[in-house]
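Problem: given the chain below (118 residues), write out its structure.
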Amino acid sequence: MRLIERVVRGIWTPSSHEILQPSFSSKACLSASIVFICQHLGLFSAPFSAVYFSVVCFFVYFSISAQILGFFDPFVPFEKVICVVIFGGLVDAVGKLFSRTEQQTSPPSDETAKHKSD
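Solution.
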């Protein structure tokens, strides 16, 4: 509904869609639904009341900590690690690190030595 409202008002931008930049509430609801599905499929054995209580405590704790402590999104560290591994940032970072160390260990060229002596 929000997408249609923004298109009608003329301020729609593709990067402002909830799927591309989910809020903490969206991420928490998705993770809670995954926990409930796993419990229903029997991937872990816990009574439904305990799973429900854990999910409610998770929501309450992070809501209160966001209000009182100004706590950030607890999913951010996991998202950063997953993005680095999946999208190749790790390989790029290691490649830059090795290229930087090779440049530092290589001897200066003849032109650089001439300019330093002048």
